[in-house]
């Protein structure tokens, strides 16, 4: 179907892709977006993706991306948080209550998905080695990975866990609450655009690993990638090193 026909046919349907690839909103219409009860952050995200759809003639959200293209949207905006944005996000989280702060830091320091963070229980905390055991999503088989975290974060997680049963989640939120929490912290940190999502945090974690020369195989394990090729996309964006090379020309 040509882009003009597709645009007319889909003018009242907007796809909003959340951090978890299997969860997609498919019913948002132009009238629905104006309802008071509809989340403002979700509305802004929906309009952004709809604009990208109209400009490209096809959905950039469902188009497979290879290499560095996976880190930029159809309009050329980056989808990852840079180092300064990650720091501002963490500073905004530090002003929040314990549960919110620990949730935000877990996303930032492990690169996990929202649903993976919300599945963490007291049994998932390995305090002896300061690692969090995460169940990796988007896998056909049941797969777990152990990701190291700062000592301070582990202490906060343990404090929350003391009030939970062994197999009870540390957070009783639904995924949408986690998503809205991240968006609110992004706004407070002054981070706007495509990268201001939990997915942006995950990409930012991968970029930070590459910038600090963490072996790709280790980054792959921490992020739960099935293939090393997926992890390799972060090697294409090396801010400080790339700038050092460019400075030779200035």
Key traits:
250 residues, mainly alpha, hpI Integrase, Chain A, 2 domains, two-stranded antiparallel sheet, 12 helices, 5 strands, 47% helix, 9% strand, globular
Question: Can I get a quick summary?
Answer:
With 250 residues, the protein is mainly alpha-helical. It has helices at residues 3-9, 30-33, 40-56, 83-94, 98-110, 114-118, 151-161, 175-188, 198-211, 216-223, 228-231, 239-247; strands at 14-17, 24-28, 125-126, 131-136, 143-148. Helices cover 47% and strands 9% of the residues.
If you had to describe this structure to a student in words, what would you say it looks like?
- It contains twelve helices and five strands.
- The chain has two domains: 3-63, no CATH class; 83-243, Intergrase catalytic core (hpI Integrase, Chain A, Orthogonal Bundle), CATH 1.10.443.10.
- By secondary structure, the protein is mainly α.
- It has helices at 3-9, 30-33, 40-56, 83-94, 98-110, 114-118, 151-161, 175-188, 198-211, 216-223, 228-231, 239-247; strands at 14-17, 24-28, 125-126, 131-136, 143-148.
- The radius of gyration is 19 Å and the shape is globular.
- It has a three-stranded antiparallel beta sheet with strand order 3-4-5, covered by helices on one side. A two-stranded antiparallel sheet has the order 1-2.
